[in-house]
UniProtKB/TrEMBL annotation:
L-glutamate binds at R21, F22, A23, P24, S25, E63, Y190, R208. SUPFAM superfamilies: Nucleotidylyl transferase. One of its GO terms (molecular function) is zinc ion binding. Gene3D superfamilies: HUPs (3.40.50.620). GO terms for biological process: glutamyl-tRNA aminoacylation; tRNA modification. Binds 1 zinc ion per subunit. Catalyzes the tRNA-independent activation of glutamate in presence of ATP and the subsequent transfer of glutamate onto a tRNA(Asp). Glutamate is transferred on the 2-amino-5-(4,5-dihydroxy-2-cyclopenten-1-yl) moiety of the queuosine in the wobble position of the QUC anticodon. Keywords: Aminoacyl-tRNA synthetase, ATP-binding, Ligase, Metal-binding, Nucleotide-binding, Protein biosynthesis, Zinc. This is Glutamyl-Q tRNA(Asp) synthetase. Belongs to the class-I aminoacyl-tRNA synthetase family. GluQ subfamily. The gene is gluQ. Zn(2+) binds at C119, C121, Y133, C137.
Length: 315
């Protein structure tokens, strides 16, 4: 009898991991607009199944690096709202306020590589010079005191392929600016912290609202700069969903005092959010539990149904 060789199925060499995230700033409670971003990023992660049959991971990061804008208790309330809506995150949430040493290290690496410089221009100065920063302080050798720190922008990336919006072209002059990575008031700039933590959390997909389309160019530039100089990292894929605006045309935001969502009866807002995202939830889900709605939505999530327009009116 011949030897029978049983061929074992080969383990795929590299199993693709999906790591998404929701990154709210605790400057207020979640409103319908931020619920949509949370839900879209969650569903995009959970709809992804790799070769081992594992769903994507979905992480939460609290972006609390701007204490003057923070609302006491908002972080806890945001997390409670996510739980109430069945959006359970996979790893311990990350607080940006605990990442300061890491951001410092990155800033000092950039300085060492001569990729940053101090700037003392005011907004009024820059406005008077045409509104786009033209590297005015590049050769001035300002002291750190009273200065902002700017990145020497060698890449100026301004185009990318968005998961929902397709090809996006950002304002090139803005994308080419030497933008601020550490603020005059001592706070870390959003662009720096967000990219540093997307790297720290190994994020592969960033799904968020269209209000962050323009900053994406700067974030792509930072990824490229890090990669070219001292920090090997993979640039995530970006996807931007439409913004919810009120009937009179305002973006729903904490600044506009958009009403917080109701944690006690999450189903109606959840169904409305799915409809907003183009997903046509089955009418019978209206009477289902939150977990059943979320399960249905994860199974049926289709990127191609997410509307391509930038703004949609809601009641
Ligand atoms: N923390 C930012 C905000 O609440 C979002 C950051 C991001 O998703 O990249 O607007
Ligand atoms: Zn300057």
């Amino acid at each position: 009898m011949q030897n029978v060789h049983i061929k074992r199925p080969q383990e795929p060499k590299q199993v693709i991991q999906y790591r998404g995230r929701f990154a709210p700033s605790p400057s207020g409670l979640l409103h319908f607009g931020s619920l949509i971003a949370a839900l879209a990023s969650f569903l995009d992660a959970k709809a992804f199944i790799n070769k081992r049959g594992e769903q994507g991971k979905w992480l939460v990061r609290i972006e609390d690096i701007d204490p003057p804008r923070e609302q006491t208790g908002a972080s806890t309330e945001i997390l409670k709202t996510l739980e109430a809506f069945g959006l359970h995150w996979d790893e311990t949430e990350l607080y940006q306020s605990k990442q300061r040493l890491y951001y410092r290290e990155i800033l000092s690496d950039l300085t060492q590589k001569k990729l940053s410089y101090f700037c003392q221009c005011t907004r009024a100065n820059i406005k008077a010079l045409g509104g786009i920063y033209q590297g005015h302080c590049l050769t001035k050798n300002h002291q750190p005191e009273g200065s902002a720190l700017r990145l020497i922008n060698q890449n100026g990336l301004h185009q990318f392929n968005d998961l929902f919006q397709g090809d996006v072209v950002c304002n090139q002059a803005l994308a080419n600016e030497d933008f601020i990575i550490h603020r005059k008031d001592g706070l870390f700039a959003y662009q720096l912290a967000v990219v540093a933590d997307d790297i720290a959390q190994k994020i592969t997909h960033v799904v968020r609202g269209c209000d962050l389309l323009e900053p994406t160019a700067r974030q792509l530039t930072l990824f490229q700069t890090f990669n070219d100089s001292f920090l090997k990292c993979t640039t995530p894929q970006y996807g931007h969903i439409p913004l919810a605006i009120t009937n009179d045309g305002y973006k729903l935001s904490k600044q506009n005092k958009a009403p917080a969502i109701n944690n006690a009866i999450p189903q109606p807002a959840l169904m409305a959010a799915l409809t907003f995202l183009g997903q046509s939830p089955l009418p019978e889900l209206t009477n289902a539990s939150v977990d059943e709605i979320i399960q249905w939505a994860s199974k049926h999530w289709q990127r191609s149904l997410v509307p391509k327009v930038i703004e949609i009116n809601i009641d």
